[in-house]
Amino acid sequence: MSKSLMLSCVAALIAMAASPSFGSVVLQQTFDNDTVGVLPSGWSYFSGSAATSPNTVVQNGVPATPTPPNVFQNEITDGAQYGVRTSFTPFSLTADSNVFSYEFDLYVDEMVNNFSSGFQFRVWNNFSIISVGDYRLVSFPTAGTFGFSDNSLPIGTFAQDTWHHVKFVIDPSSTDAGVGMLFVNDMNTPIHTEPYSGEFGRTANMQLFDILTHNTQLSRIYIDNFTVAIPEPAGITAIAGLAGATLMRRRRCRCRRRHGC
């Protein structure tokens, strides 16, 4: 391999490492091929009544979707509690595993001014919820705004009636500890970072994602382009190690040719 070709390959690998990637996608839904008027494929109720809940796929219209024609509407109008759930390929987080993430486009259409209620996004294994990333979507007192709640902390302020991109990442340092990060719109800088520990067992065999509505009135959100993924590890350290190994191989080859070493 010529020096110029080798450097070109290394540069290409670095560029690939710097590029965003879903990596190993375990679930991805655009809702575009789902039947309008019912739950999306793979989703089911675990709380509330399917006969009265308006949690359905709706067609493009108001709001205009990021990727037409369909979005997933979650709505509550009667003060009851509804929960919808989907599953993905089970996996476990360990100190050596890649990070876990879920993300989606979000449009808040209506949200009552009630900080203790709202829509909650959660990740489960088959028997318990992982506490980190247990964010609740709530209305703030300022008209036309919403944010996130992690227990009692208000996180961020965002405009209603427009699309936002939301992503949550769990980066484990062991089987039961690590850090969680919430991103909104800017995928490079989290708006909230939360260390966690004592999650032994909860991050094993993770396989469920749900949206829970909390006894609220006249609230409606839409989500689109929902993805659950385990991104591939990609870092400058790994690329530098590859480049170093390539250079060492070239030097050894030269040594053999020149000196018979």
What does this structure look like?
15% of the residues lie in helices and 42% in strands. It is of the alpha+beta class and 261 residues long. It has a single domain (21-233), classed as Galactose-binding domain-like (Jelly Rolls), CATH 2.60.120.260. Helix 1 runs antiparallel to helix 2. The radius of gyration is 23 Å and the shape is globular.
Features:
261 residues; alpha+beta; Jelly Rolls; eight-stranded antiparallel sheet; seven-stranded antiparallel sheet; 2 helices; 15 strands; globular; disordered C terminus
Note the topology.
Layout: H1 3-18, E1 24-29, E2 43-47, E3 56-59, E4 70-76, E5 83-91, E6 100-110, E7 118-124, E8 135-139, E9 145-150, E10 153-159, E11 163-172, E12 178-184, E13 192-196, E14 206-214, E15 219-230, H2 236-259
Helix pairs in contact: 1-2
Q: At the third CATH level, what is the topology name?
A: Jelly Rolls
Number of helices: 2
> What is the number of E strands?
15
CATH superfamily: Galactose-binding domain-like
Please compute the radius of gyration using only Cα atoms. Answer: 23 Å
Any idea what the shape is?
globular
Sketch the topology as an H/E string, one letter per element. HEEEEEEEEEEEEEEEH
Largest sheet properties:
8 strands, antiparallel
Task: Compute the number of structural domains.
Answer: 1
- The poorly predicted ranges are 5-22, 234-259
Level of helix content? 10-25%
CATH secondary-structure class: Mainly Beta
